[in-house]
Protein: Glutaredoxin
Amino acid sequence: MDVMFGRVKKKDAASRTVTLIGKPGCHLCDDARAVIEAVCAETGASWEEKDITRDEELHRAYWEQIPVVLIDGEQHTFWRVDAGRLRRELGA
Structure:
């Protein structure tokens, strides 16, 4: 968020990045991916996916919580992704 004249201004959804942290063969990750793809297509936000089996640091941090969803690098949720909550967080 940007601060402008003492007021907090929300970022535009198109300037936000959603990150899905998961692993292959994870059915909850598949469900999360479908929600993220749909919400990002609707809002204009970009998204990326990171595989914990290819990143030791991510594996240590998140292996018990996958799928984990970050927005602009900050944890938003884990296990289940609620489309309405994700939309609201993106400012849509």
Helices lie at 27-43, 56-62, 83-89. The beta strands are 2-4, 7-9, 17-22, 46-51, 68-71, 74-78.
